[in-house]
Amino acid sequence: MENNPRSSSSLPLAGRVAIVTGATRGMGREIAIHLHSLGARVTINYVSSSSKAELLVSELNDSSQLKSAIAVKADVSDPDEINNLFDQTEQEFGSKVHIVVNCAGVLDPKYPSLSETTLEDFDNTFTINTRGSFLCCKEAAKRVMRGGGGRIIMMSTSMVGGLAPGYGVYAASKAAVETMVKVLAKELKGSRITANCVAPGPVATEMFYAGKSDETVKMLAGACPMGRIGESKDITEIVGFLAGDGGEWINGICAKRVVVDGRHHMLGRLASNTAKELLNGQEVVVVRCEEICLSGGLVRQKMKYMRFLRKRMNTKPSHGPIHFRAPSKIFWRTVRGMIPHKTKRGAAALARLKVFEGIPPPYDKIKRMSGHKYCLLGRLSSEVGWNHYDTIKELETKRKERSQVMYERKKQLNKLRTKAEKVAEERLGSQLDVLAPVKY
């Protein structure tokens, strides 16, 4: 008989049991497939798409000698059905549940403003997204395997921090989930069960495309750092990492992109903090690397760096150190030295780091100041062969000028709007009482 690779205990999740809710489509389906490929036995949860669930179970079982996937119908907002979901999983696989990934969620495709959101839509969103997550967390905290290997993973969204119009109720429902998971992680202290959130940005799923025009999709893709909409596989790798042994020390984290303005940060301190966050599963973007600070004066730092360049040249003259002269690469290399980048975990952590000179859109967010004596990393780089410092400064100057013009225009428009509202109130007078009941 041909050897089945799934029967090998070398698979990272071999022998473990996972429940994935909302697993018949989108990210839930891809996550279930990925966990199964890592060796886990998977329960495919669904609420209405029984045919899709059975088809997926058939595909997963066909790739394995033993029964390694089942489908269970359950509404995540119903406590009795959640309890039954765990019961059937334990009964079918003869083992406690190790991993729970809650992907069940809803998003109103009309993207209404808060004033236009109906109470029915509000209740439906919080019932599925927040109540469903609460019931999954509650049952998982009592029944997931303790003593090692227990993982609770909830799905959130980058819209919690994005504060985009039309996402008010959806973002609020997910913000509650993030807070709940962080508290749960502390309550599970000592059980060796981890609880984490994954908060992806735009991902190409049915839920994402629903109600969006082609122009809106293109605009969102252009705003993404990678210049494209994310794919489900971009998220499944993160979930697989958190579900495995590599995620044992990551607890109470909401995995989302953190943007750091490098201006006037001290190099060593910023690099060490960045390395810790990367190893904890965070994605980190550092902008304005050319203005990161180094302790001491320029002459001293230039002498140290020239010694480094000579060593690099002597090691491999045909290669040269040119690619390490850019400030972003100098910072990247400093972080790399603080991470075990030759291990699987370290390589994955380093891949979550993005570094830039200047502030490419949309990263004009956070600033940190330092009062220490310093030289600018960009100036040091320009002294040792990096020829783009003046260009970056010129582009930044133009950006600030454009921003100032837009800010002044916005202030002027706000003044005109306030003045127009006062004039309208004076002209309408008693007619406002007639218009108020119809919310005009």
Automatic annotation (TrEMBL):
Is Ribosomal protein one of the keywords UniProt gives this record? yes
Tell me which Gene3D superfamilies the record gives.
6.10.250.3250, NAD(P)-binding Rossmann-like Domain, Ribosomal protein L13
Indicate yes or no for the key word Ribosomal protein: yes
Q: Any one Gene Ontology biological process term?
A: translation
Q: What positions belong to coiled-coil segments?
A: none
GO cellular-component term (any):
large ribosomal subunit
Q: Which InterPro entries match?
A: NAD(P)-bd_dom_sf, Ribosomal_uL13, Ribosomal_uL13_CS, Ribosomal_uL13_euk/arc, Ribosomal_uL13_sf, SDR_fam
Lineage: superkingdom: Eukaryota
This protein's UniProt keywords: Oxidoreductase, Ribonucleoprotein, Ribosomal protein
Q: Name one GO molecular function term.
A: oxidoreductase activity, acting on CH-OH group of donors
Q: Which family does it belong to?
A: Belongs to the universal ribosomal protein uL13 family.
Q: Which PANTHER family match?
A: NAD DEPENDENT EPIMERASE_DEHYDRATASE FAMILY PROTEIN, EXPRESSED (PTHR48107:SF12), NADPH-DEPENDENT ALDEHYDE REDUCTASE-LIKE PROTEIN, CHLOROPLASTIC-RELATED (PTHR48107)
Enumerate the HAMAP family for this protein: Ribosomal_uL13
In its UniProt entry, what is this protein called? (thale cress) hypothetical protein
Q: Which organism is it from?
A: Arabidopsis thaliana (Mouse-ear cress)
